[in-house]
Structure formats: C-alpha cells, structure tokens
Amino acid sequence: METLLFDAKKEGSVEAVANILKNGGLAAIPTETVYGLAANAFDEKACENIFKAKGRPGDNPLIVHISDMSMLKDIAAEFPEGARLLAEKFWPGPLTMIMKKSEKIPDVTSANLPSVAVRFPAHPVARAIIEAAGIPLAAPSANLSGSPSPTSFEHCVHDLMGRVDAIIDGGASSVGVESTIISFVGEKTVLLRPGYITLEQLRETLGEVEISHAVLEKLEEGEKVLSPGMKYKHYAPKAQVTLIKASSEDYIKFVNEHAKEGIFALCFDEEAEKLSVSTVTYGSEFSDAEQAEHIFDALRIIDESGAEKVFAHSPKASGIGLAVYNRLIRAAGFDIIEL
Ligand code: TXA
Ligand code: MG
Description:
Layout: E1 4-7, H1 13-22, E2 27-29, E3 36-40, H2 44-54, E4 63-65, H3 81-90, E5 95-100, E6 115-119, H4 124-133, E7 137-138, H5 153-160, E8 166-169, E9 180-183, E10 190-193, H6 199-206, E11 210-211, E12 240-245, H7 248-257, E13 263-267, E14 278-281, H8 288-305, E15 309-313, H9 321-331, E16 336-338
Parallel strand pairs: 1-8, 2-8, 4-6, 5-9, 10-11, 12-15, 12-16, 13-14, 13-15
Antiparallel strand pairs: 2-3, 3-7, 4-7, 5-6, 9-10
Helix pairs in contact: 1-4, 8-9
Residues 31, 33-34, 36, 60-63, 96, 98, 110, 113, 115-117, 119, 139-141, 178-179, 181, 192, 226-230 line the site of threonylcarbamoyladenylate.
C-alpha cells in the first residue's frame, strides 16, 4: 500500500489526513504522549485494519480519542463522578479513562470488552485532525506490536511505511510515554498503566486508587488481567536488557566490571562519561519527565546500535518515574538485578 507523508505545518495537511480517516483509512498522527495509529472508532472494518497493520493481538482493545467533551455520549454509557473530576483537571491531556461502553462502539474496537478506553489528547495536531474528521478516533500507539512506542515521525515511518494510508509529522512527542490509564468499571478505581499523570496526582483528586499488580509484576501464564495490553511482551529491543537497581556509584562500578564487546549501558546523562562501555542516555538522573521523554527513543537507538546486551540503570519508581520503570521492566523481560 502507498503511504502518503504529510507535514502538519503545511496548509491542508490536517484536512487531508482527516479525509483519509473519514473514508475508512489509517493514519499515524502525533499526540503529546506517543504517536497513535488512528482510524474511525465507529468503523468496524477500519479498526480491524489497525490490528492488521500493527500485528496486534485481537484481544488487546484500542483507546478512543476525542476532541470535545460532547463526543463522549456516543462512546461511554456512563460518565462516573470520579472520571468527571479527573476530566476537569487533566483533560485535554495524557490520561485515559476506562468506562462502560456505548453500543455505538463496535466490539472489535474494545476487543469484546463491555468497557471502552477514552482519551482527550492535548496535542494541537491530534485535536485538529479529530475535529476536522468529526469522529472519535481509535488509536493504539503507532508502533509494530512489541516494539518501543513511537515518539517521532521517523519512528512511525520506520515501523509503518507501506502498512498505513498516511503518516503526519507533528514533531516529537513531549511526554514520551503513553497515557496514564485508570479504570472506573470495577468496584474499585484502579491504575492500569502509569504515565505522566502520576498516581500521587490521581490520589490527590480521588482519594483511594488501587494499583493493578500488573504495573509492577510479571503476570502468571494465562492470568486474566484488567488491561490486556499488560500481558504482552512489550517495548523490547533486540538486545537482551537487564535492569539494574542501584545507586549511581554502584551501577557504574558494576557496568565497568562487566565491560566487554557488545555490552551497552542505558544510563542517565550524568553517568555516561564515567562508563567504559558504549552508552545511550535517557535524560538526567534528577528529572523523571526527561527520562520519560527520551526512553523510547533510547531503546530504538540501542536497537540500531547492534548491542547484544544492555545494562539499564533503573529510574526511581515514583512520580513519572513509575511510568518509566513500568516500561523498562517490560523491555527487560523482568530480568532485574538489585545491588
Ligand atoms: O498515550 C496513549 O495512550 C497512546 C496514544 C496514541 O493515545 N495510545 C496507546 O495505546 O498507548 P495502546 O493501544 O498502545 O495502549 C492501550 C492500552 C492497552 O494496554 C490496552 O490493553 C488498554 O489500553 N485498554 C484499552 N481499552 C481497555 C479497556 N476497555 N479495558 C482495559 N484496558 C484497556
Ligand atoms: Mg502500545
């Protein structure tokens, strides 16, 4: 298939992409978290094509994106009080909420679940495209299933050229990790995926919020989970990654002791010059927002470097760091060393 490339800064490109989507096509579009692979959320066939283009398992539901609160009534059957409070504070923004789904949402979009994931993105290009299309857009991250999520136009071109109708360049994603996901469909309010909106911020607004054990732990074989996406191998580079939980000093000592050909360090900016192996950095030790912004790009750079084995320095698992930690334990296939 021919993939048309657009630049959001050029006149007419938003409208052209919106038209492709309205006509049942697929387009990779920028959001502030990561790029999304979008299609009309009400169009069964178009949503089926998302799964095909990504190579995504059919039981992993899609997030539905809106550009106006009035769109919500055709997507969700209820708008719980907690969701209302969070929407007031964090929408538009990097937060996805799971609610009971409306009958208008096809089963393929929600992977046969009775619930639906909804997000109101803040990125001006994403919002403009949804608005111009006049329909909510179902969009998973625009990577091939299993690869690191795309935070730039180039990442999308790398993964999806020839597999989708269009890719539009809206610059690098500033958040860098996918949205925080919170569920309102069970008895308790549960954090399913950590992101830029932190657990601490959610608790400040809602009081009690549980954290799904899939956020921090490996799932058992065949275990049923609230968020199907959590059970799949994810974000994994070709190299074998080990996550090292240690102080900077101990991490540097450990890596230098294990230095040899083919070994890479995925480390903080401040550590690179003290290491005697090839390094890829993912932000300052002191900024969890920077770490989130760069982590997926760093994993892709490692892929291209031909690294065989990677020692990744673990971020602190709090604040936005919880999101980075959650992605890295998956990239490492839960191979963790605590020093
Ligand atoms: O930031 C983001 O959320 C990006 C941008 C494009 O918006 N999208 C994204 O989509 O990360 P995706 O498909 O890569 O991740 C969606 C996650 C999956 O883990 C999926 O299992 C979960 O959301 N999910 C979707 N609908 C759900 C539902 N009804 N119940 C529980 N989990 C759901
Ligand atoms: Mg994804």
